[in-house]
Each structure stands twice: as C-alpha cells, then as structure tokens.
Fold these 2 entries.
Entry 1:
Amino acid sequence: MNHPVIVLGVIGADCHAVGNRILDMYFSSRSYHVVNLGVMVSQDEFIDAAIETGAQAILVSSLYGHGEIDCAGLRDRCIERGLDDIILYVGGNLVIGKQRFEEVAAKFRTMGFDRVFGPDADLAVVDRLLRQDIKRRQPCS
Amino acid sequence: MTVEHHRLELETFLASRQAVLETWPTGADVDLEEGIRYHRSIPPHKSFAPVMRAADARGVTLLQPRAGVALVDEHIRLLQQLEQECDLLPTTVDAYTRQNRYDQAAQGVEKSRRAGHSLLNGFPAVNHGPAACRQVVDSVSKPVQIRHGTPDARLLAEVALAAGFTAFEGGGISYNLPYAKKVPLERSIRHWQYVDRLVGLYQEEGVTINREPFGPLSGTLVPPCISHAVAIVEGLLALEQGVRSITLGYGQAGNLVQDVAAIHTLRELGHRYFRDAGFDDYELTTVLHQWMGGFPGNESKAAAVIAWGGMAAALARATKVITKTPHEAAGIPTTASNLQGIQITAQIVNMMADQTMPAAPVRDLEEQMIRREVDTIMKAFFALADGDLATGAIRAVEAGVIDVPFAPSAFNAGKLLPCRDDEGAVRILDRGQVPMDEDVFRFHQDRIAARARTERRDPGFQMVIDDVYAISKGRLVGRPTA
C-alpha cells in the first residue's frame, strides 16, 4: 500500500483548526491520501468518511478537554458499522486538567484506541508507527 | 435572512425573543424586568463598566483570568479563590454550550457529578439557568464577565444578563470565523445584533453592560490590522444597537514594539471611527490577551511567556490583561495554576506601572503602518457596505477584505498568510484579497526578505509552520533547525 488512506478530524464541538491544518499538510507530504474533515466532526462523520474512502486509519484530534466524552464508544460504533479492523489513533489535550500522560493514554487505549499521543507528538514518529500498524493489519502480507 | 444595520425595532426584537427563550427550558426563567432591578442594586465595584472606567482614568492595567467548570458550587469556589488575586472575574462557558448543544452540556454536567470533578471545559450557564447564575454573581465581590465563543449567543445572553453578569464577550465576526465551521455571516451578525440590542435595552433602563469584541481571533499570527478592523466593525455594530461600554481587544503577537503600537492604535482608531460615525456617548477601553498560541510544556518557560504578555499590556497601558497559566500547554488549568498565572502577571504589571515606553521612531513606524493598513481595510469595508454596515461586514468577509489566518470557518477566505520578520513582528507574506497600499505591502515583504536572508531560505509555508510552533519550542521566531 503506497498511499494509505487516512481520515483526519477534530472531534466533537472543538474548533481548534491550526494543528489539523498542519497534520493534513504533513501526512499529505508523506504520500498518504488524507481525507481531512476539519474541525467539529461527529463520530458518525468519521465513520462515514472511513467507509466511503476505504480508509485504513482514523486519526482523531481533540484539544479542548472534552475528548473523554466525545471519544467514548467510537470503537464500538466502528465495529457496528463494519469497520472491525480500522486503526484508531487519538492525540491532543484529551482530558480536563494536567493529568499524567501514561494514565490518559491507558484510559484511551481501554476505550479502543490503538495509539494515544500528547499535544507535542513528533509527527515523524506517528508516521513510522502508522505505517507499521497498517502493514501489520494487511491481510496476507 | 436579510440583515440591516439599523437598530432592531422593539417589535422585531420581541417577536424573535419568545422563540429564543423557548430553545431550552431555563429560558422560561428569564425575567428581564427583575434582572434590570437586580442590576440597579449592584454596587459600582462589582460592575464591569465603572471598574473599567476607573482603571482607564488612573491609567492602570487590571488582571482577569479565564475560568469555568461544570458544577455551580465548584465554579463558585473557583471564582472565590481567583478573586483573592485578580481584579476582574470571568465565567468561561463550555464548548458544548458555545455550539448550542445544551443536551450534551447536560450530559457533561451529569458525568461531572458522577466523576466528582469537571469533565466540561467551562461553565454551562444556559443549563444551570438564571437562578444558579445569580448565585455565582452573588457569591463574589468583583465584576464577572461571560467569556465564551458562541456564534448564536442569544439565549446565553438572556440568561447571563438577567442573572446579573455585567459584561459579555463576543461579536458576529469574532465569534464566528474562529469558532464555527459553517455558520453563515448573515446569521451570526443577525444573532449578535440581538445580543447587542438586548444590552441596549438594559442601557435604556440605566444599566450599563460592558461588551468586548473578541480580539485575538484565531490566536495564530493574526496581523494587528485584521484584528483591529474586526474590533472596529463590531464596535460600530454594537453602538448602533445601543451598547455604550466597549472594550476593544488584541492578542499579544510577541514583538514588544509591535504589541505596544497595536494597543495604542486600537484605542486611537476605535475612537476615530466611532466618532466619525456620529457616536460620542460611549466609553472605550482596551484589553490585551497574553499569547494565545501554543505554549511551552515546561511550566517555568510558560511563566516567562506569561510575564512577557504582562509586560506588553502594562507598557501599552491596556485597561486589562487576560492572563494565561503555566498549565496552558496541557489544557484546562487547576485553580492553583490559574492563580500562578495571575501572580506572575501581577508582579510584572506592578513593576512596569511606573515605567513608560519612550517614544521612538521604530514605534512611530509600527503605529503608522497599522493606521494605514486599518484605514485601507476600513475604506474597502465602507465601500462594500454602501451605507449599511451589517451588510458591509458580511461582504467584507465574503470578499476576503477581512481574512483571519487559520480560522476554521468555511466562510473565511483563508488566503492571507502571515509570518514573522527577523525581530518577530507579525508581517504579511501573502495578502490574499486584503487591500493594502503597495508601499505598505512592500514594507512587509522587505521585512520578511530580511529574515529569509538571515535564515538562508526562501519565505514560504514552512516558515509559517515554524512560527506557529516557535514559542512552544522556546523562541519567538521559527528559525530552521540544523
């Protein structure tokens, strides 16, 4: 898969637009096919876009603190809609208040996210991990 | 929906008012007349307009944090701790309420009760309703402002003003382009005319509510001329509806000379455009927002960024400064961190209070550039308005005459591209459709070219990205690594 399809967006009622633009630019420059839904994206909009484009991964951003509420149930909803194997990443300031990142990451992994990133994640690392994860999920590879 | 600039007729206002109050059950508890009686009983030291007026007369800079949590008791405790250190109090509203998603805010309140701590990033004032909001105002001894980011704030304003809040932030452009994805300007301008008309009704009863257009916009490398133009246009729209106490805002950009010049010209140009439009019975004050972009994660480094904002506000004699916290990079701060932000700012504001920024040719040049840029944008705005300023605002955004960098709205042109110059001042790399005199644009280009020579690279989007991250990575100008 030379051009993996990924869906990007900022979940819930969050309108932080700057990071989203930069992720779009970065992943596009790394030859992903980026489907960017922008800010204020609902769970169903992420899933609809992933189904329509046959995406391998959904990258959810949240910077305003409501991530815990907005992301709850996303994995189950993906499975209900037939996206059993889709890769789910989440990153940003995911909870209210300064909490230990390890605890936040554990909480979101329990919610069904494959990987969890802080607001200062190195995008080159995200790129490397994403390629690994996509390769691993590919049947007969 | 048609929008016109003239003052909304009382009948038109009252006709839409019933529908507004019915959008959530707490709207039924809004009692305008009781609210007005309550406001008349508020002592001046607890009311925004007189406190801002007095600070302006004394030439001092007041301190105001941002703060809001899900539950009423918790929110009152938070404000009672903050008021020990600050001059003006906020009530920051959560992001669900900002999008009128009151059912989701209700769930957030419920989940916060169960979790024992706030899961919302602000205070859901509409859900709590006028009586609970009144408790908040009654429990503190300083003026309290509603701060939010709501394209349609009609019900929020009804609830908050009836409850006794004495200041209300926002405007039809500044709370649309940076805070919404697909709300047409026609709609947000119309809805903010309603808010301003409501404030006008209180004013007619002798109750002055302070209004503050949101200065920083996207908070990301916004050139002063853009935020000034938005502030002046929103000020004119508010004055027309009967608003009389206006605080114009600006988000710190980071270069001290440019930031001081920006606050000076904001006040000067605000007065000039308001008076030219025939208004003379208003009060104008200013606010500087400490750096609104990305912060360093290290709390000591964040403290330095906060202090630098305090310095700019004090030297520019902004009437108030909105403080950040050492937790900024991690999101919503604890009470302790919020207090630290205020204390850091208080120390530097007090130390700068007796010092002035000497007049200097570099500052004159910055001020002259901002004046000329704003005048050119306003000239295009008035031409598009063709006598109707509300229509002018809509057309100016549509035409990209007003263009906010990095705004999420689909209705924003998004063609203007800013970046820093060699000394960190925000300049315009691509002007898009924003009108600029050729020699002024050349000034911007020359400054950016000088930086490009220093960095031995061409100006471009990578430079902009580097600037977006620079402060969080420890410096002002996004220099290339290696």
Entry 2:
Amino acid sequence: MSELTLTVMRLGFLAVLWLFVIVAVQVIRSDLFGTRVTQRGSRREAGRQQQPARQQAAPPPQRQQAGGRQRRNAPSKLVVSEGILTGTTVALQGQTITLGRAHDSTIVLDDDYASSRHARIYPDRDGQWIVEDLGSTNGTYLDRSRLTTPTPIPLGAPIRIGKTVIELRK
Amino acid sequence: MSSTTNQPTHHTSTIGAIGAPSRRNTELAMLVFAVVIPVFAYANVGLAIDDQVPAGLLSYGLGLGLLAGVAHLVVRKFAPYADPLLLPLATLLNGLGLVAIWRLDQSKLLQSIGVAGGKATNQLIYTALGIALFAVVLVFLKDHRVLQRYTYISMVGALVLLLLPLVPGLGANITYGAKIWIQVGSFTIQPGEFAKIVLAIFFAGYLMVKRDALALASRRFMGLYLPRGRDLGPIIVVWMISILILVFETDLGTSLLFFGMFVIMLYVATERTSWIVFGLLMSAAGAVGVASFEPHVQTRVQAWLDPMREYTLSRNGSSDGIVHSEQAMQALWAFGSGGTLGTGWGQGHSELIRFAANSDFILATFGEELGLAGIMAILLIYGLVVERGVRTALAARDPFGKLLAVGLSGAFALQVFVVAGGVMGLIPLTGMTMPFLAYGGSSVIANWALIGILIRISDTARRPAPAPAGNPDAEMTQVVRPS
C-alpha cells in the first residue's frame, strides 16, 4: 500500500472520529436548546401556516383517562400530575401507598404544606382504592372537598395535597 | 433525524415543543455512524499490515452492527425516552477497542509470548454477553427505584464480591501483582468490576436516607462544616474497606475507585465541601501509609517516579529480587512516537509494551497510532458518556435515581482517570482496565450493565410528564387553618 494512501487514511480516520464527536455535541446542543423559536413572516404566509402551529400548541390527547373512565374501575398506577414530583408514577399492586414528608413514605412530598405523615391510599377488600387523611394540618382534598373520612377514589379524580396533585389512572 | 412533532413551521413566531418526545431516530443514526468508524479502522489496519482488506471485515462489521442493532431495538421497545447518546458512544468505544485488540493480535511478538492471538474474537463474544446483560437490565428493571429496596443486600453483595479473590482456592493463581481475579472453571473473572455497580446502589440508597443528618448536623470550624463524630462512621468504614483492599489485594486502582465514588456521592448528597477535603486527606494518608510498607505498591510508585530507571533495571537485570517492568517507559515512548497525528493504524510499535499491551496499556496503542488528536477525541467520548450520566442525574426526579446516576458516572470517570493517568505517567500505574476499550470480559460486561442502568434512569427522567387534569383551586389547599 502506498505511503500516500495510508497517510490519507490516517488523517481521514482522525477527521471521521472528530466528526463523530462534533455530531454528538450537536445532539446534546439540540437537547439543551430544545425550544425552537421561528421567525415571523409576512401576514399572508402566517395565515397559511396557522393550522400546523395550532396543532403543535394543542396539548396531547389524554388517551388513557378518556378510555379508562368508560371501563370498569381498575386503576393500575398512581400518577403525580402537578407539583415538584410531576411525572412520577407508582404501580398499584395492592400495597398501601403513604404520602408525606417522612423519608419512609412511598411518595416523599418535599412540600411546605404537607405533613410528615399526610395521607395514605390503600385498597379495600373489593379492590376499590381508598384515600384517607392521616390527621394532616392542611388537609387532603379530593376534587374540591376536604376529606374527613376514608373515601373511595374515582378514576382520574385529582387528589390535592399542598402543591401536589395525584390521580389514579388505568 | 429528530422525529415527529418538531417540523419547522416557517414564517410564524411559535415556540415548538421541547425537543422531540423520543430521540430514537437520532440514536439510530449515531449508532450507524458508531459502527462505520470501527469498520473503517479495521480495513485501515488490514491495509497497513497486510496490504489488503482483512478477510474478516464483513463478518466483523456485521457482528458489531448486529449487536448494536439488537441493543437499539431493546432500547426502542423498553426505554423509548432514553438518552440518545449513551448507546452510540459506548458502541463506538467498544468497536474501537475491538479493532485495537485485533491489531495487536497481528503482532508476532505478542503472539510469541501468548498475550495476543484470537483475542478479538473472544472480545466480540464478551461484547455479545455484555449486550445481552444490557438487554436483561432494560427488560427486567422496569423502574430503577426497585433497586432501592436492596440497599443493604447490595452492601453485603459488594463486600462478598470484593472479598472473593481472597478466598483460598477461588482466587486465581495468576499473580500479576494484584489479587483481583477469581477462577471459575477455565474462566477468570474480576469481581471488582461488578462490585462497582452494586456498591453504587448501596451508597445511593444509604445516602438518600441519611443525607440530611450528614448535611445539617455539623459544626462550622475554620470555614468548613465539620460533621459530627457519629455521622463520620460510614465514611470511616468505607475508608477502612478500601485500605484493606489495598493491603490484601494490593490493588490501588479499585481502592481509589471505591473511595472516590463514595466521596463524590457524599458531596452530591450533602453539598458540603468539607467531605471532599476529608476524602482527599484520608485517601492521601491511606495511600502514603500503605505505600510505605507494601512492596508491590512501592514498585509501582518507583516506576512512576523514575520509569527510565525501572526500564534499565528490567533490561540489565537487578539483584534486589524485585520484578522490574519496562512497561511504563515503553508506554511513554509509545505516546511520544505517536506525536500529534499518530503513525496511523497498524504502523506503530506498541507491541513493545509486551505484557498487558491489549488490556491495561491499550491506551498507549491509541496514543501511538492515532496521536494526540485521536487520544483527545477518545477522552472526549469518555467525557461525553460521563456528561450524559450527570445530565441524567440532573434530570432525574427522585433522589435515589439522582445519586445512582451520579455514582455510576462518577465511577466511570474515575476509572478512566485512574487508567489513563496511570498509563500516561500522571499517577502510579494501577491494574485496572479502560472501560470498553481494553481486553477483558468482566470489564466489558459490567460496563454494559452500567450503561443499561444509566439508560433506564434517563428513560424515567426524560419521559414527558402526564398532562395535568382539571385542577381544583390551588389556594384552598395551601392555607393553614386554625383548628
């Protein structure tokens, strides 16, 4: 193999290797600056583009909830839908779920309005999930009413504790 | 490349959704790139050594491509929102390692002393096992928080793994200085590589529970927060264990790795600089103390301080009864003769390192044949793996996941530092392997498992939050009522 070919391959390999690194950094960059702000054009064109823009802005359909309410009550997971823990899910497998600021809670709420043992969620004999307030200072709310007794949870109904909202989903 | 929703809507001033929901297509494109680069290198080695494209090019390329494809499909199915870069970066490192091992297999000198020959095939099998473990982690570990339940079992497991090489009959008799291997049938396993992951699980679970006590119960003294005596207990225990590893297994690298990982996680959990100061002081004291009486460690320190003297002693024979090694000097010469742009694949003479040329010292081969430019790229790729790990930790919502991701990426970074620093003469040489690059089954398999866990955490962290349902009045629930 000629000297020239090998030199070209040697430099070519280094170039390709660095290209990989640069492309990888580009991927990270697009991850960091994930929002894309596009420039406003002329009014006529803007009107034409309205539809895709609106589609983009619309929230994703809540498929799970819509389908779940029709069927029988058998929630499979608990979802935190608001607050610091937004997006956390806990699978429901018949175990009692405790909520509060205490470290050994199933869901540890880092929330000034939560008590250390705030509430618990457990299944009764029929498998219906029940929420019970454990004598918290600021109370546990199911929809808009403050809980006084253990109450069955309808699917998708928001349970509010301080700034955190959780709900049961299919 | 980035899929679905993010189609650019020109001429309107809109703010698009944050990123694409899943970056799987980006990952696939990067993965193809990461397979093509090693195939190019492989062809390059063949052309440089034999003047022809190597016969195994197709099977080798297909093998690597197949493994990468399987890994990608598993991620697509079981961790759809995972970080798009971790898998391609690991694949590229693994592929480059395979090429370098194959290149050293061609050396007559290494074949004659039994270090090389057919090792690339073995490494490909280890890689397949690693990818299999990676898939198992993603398929069966649905939620990384499950690991939290096994906090103390992990501690016991890690200690058992660490102590296995000392068990008589089980510890392998291949004494290359350090006692870190165990013999199972005809295989030798390095349990320390797996202990790294298990120990990270223990530290994460333990620190998550105890971090408040460690962070808040302290006295201020000379600008540093001094922890209470009883809170010092665990760090002392871990320090003792790492010192014991150093004394009984004479393995400086593993000891440094575990203690360093603990200090990093402690710092992240408590945000107290004092822990880093303590950690550095304690590891320095421990290392100096052990080095003062352990002959194996002393030789390593000697070779670090004056590699040329070791080289001369090894060449001319010495009368002091200690085995001297010319490896350290040969590695430095390899880096030196590589220069800025390297000699090109297959045209260096890194086989002169002889023993461990394809494992501990594989970085020297890269240094000689790819030069400073290549080494920098490789170190950057390692850096990107660590960066993605730390990014995952930042994005993770649960404290356990945060600590685990930091611990694993910290351990990965420390291992790269300890090996690269050792080979380049920055710190004394230790018997550890460069993750993914070096020849060795345990290392490759364990590191694929590590990447698997990081991908699982990043999938949980990057999963879009479920859309909020209609919310009741916020104020109502946030008022303290007199009762």
